[in-house]
Amino acid sequence: MHFPSGVEIAAVAGGLTAVLGTVLLVRSARRHTAASRRARLVLAAGAGVTTASLVVGLIGLVAMAPEWSANREQRVTLATVVAIGVVLGCVLFSVGLLRLPGLAGDTRTVARHLLDAVVVGAALWFVGWVLLSEPTRILGAATPTTCTAILLASVAVATTVGVAVVGVLRTARPRRGLILTGSGIVTTVVGGLGVATGVCQPGTAMVLASTIAVSIGLLILAWAVRFPDTLGEPHGDVIRRGTAYAFLPMLGMAVSAVYHLLWEGRFTAPGIVAGIVEGFALVARQYVALLDVRAYAHRLAESEAHYRDLAYTDALTGLANRRGLLEELRRVLRSDVPVVLLALDLDGFKYVNDMRGHDVGDAVLGDVGARLRQNLRPGDLAARLGATSSPY
């Protein structure tokens, strides 16, 4: 009679827990409405894809456990399948996060969030590359050098972590639900990457530990969905939007690069590409910020011009008011230019105003103002002083 081994029991328990977390996440997402519900369902889809890839990895683990070291080619193929599932899950998680209330916005807002996420993610990936490559190589023989698909999965995981970090930083308080959501997503995708890495290597401890991480992450996600959508509005204002977040990723990259050089490490193509991506992401982010500042300055100038027009223009006739006339007189007197001042009076206007009512009187003033504006020469100014009997 065959009794299940400890590996089989742990794999089945971890897989069932992950499936339970996904089911709870789907059921909890249905409690929300409108845009929030759609975003939560996208997160649930990401959890489903990640769980499916985890189950595939665990089935392969149980099947190949007796001859784990001998099945190298099968393990590489299985790790590739798990890594693809992790990538798809990361994409869905990122999309779901960016559609949550408090983060969703127009195309430019989403572009800003993605660039910020790339800045954070590229820095995280570079630091991880330094730790995993020679001479540090913290995983030793467990470093997944033979599974190229894991490289793509690590990029997707780093970007998703960046989206989660930026989402928390960019959302106004209260944001407890978003913090739990981001924590659950980060734990889930990192655990999924660990499963793919563990499958690729001759050992099961990393697979089981990563399975526990995925299960915990999915349970956190299911718990986070229970929180109401009180995430507030994103900091879209140029003045209120923080930018200090970029210093920490750059500091991490700089310290890692110096450490790598001091220990006589070599910069291979992946590390160089990560640095290039970080540089271009920062430049693109600064360009978007410059566009935001220009748009903000343009709106400010338009607002100032509008209020200036209100201060120096008569709202009824569209002519200059008393303040506008006095300002123009001061200007021409300072320039020592000859000036002619002509005053007009409307005969019988008081009678129209008294007998026909102020509505008719206002219509007469508006019509006279329009005719005066049509017949002004360049440099002339028509103004209404405000009196009813002698309005111009």
TrEMBL record:
Keywords: Membrane, Transmembrane, Transmembrane helix
Pfam families: GGDEF
Entry's transmembrane regions: 6-29, 41-64, 76-98, 110-132, 138-166, 178-199, 205-225, 245-263, 269-290
Gene3D superfamilies linked: 3.30.70.270
GO molecular function: diguanylate cyclase activity
Keyword Transmembrane annotated: yes
Position of the signal peptide: none
Identification of the protein by name: GGDEF domain-containing protein
Organism: Polymorphospora rubra
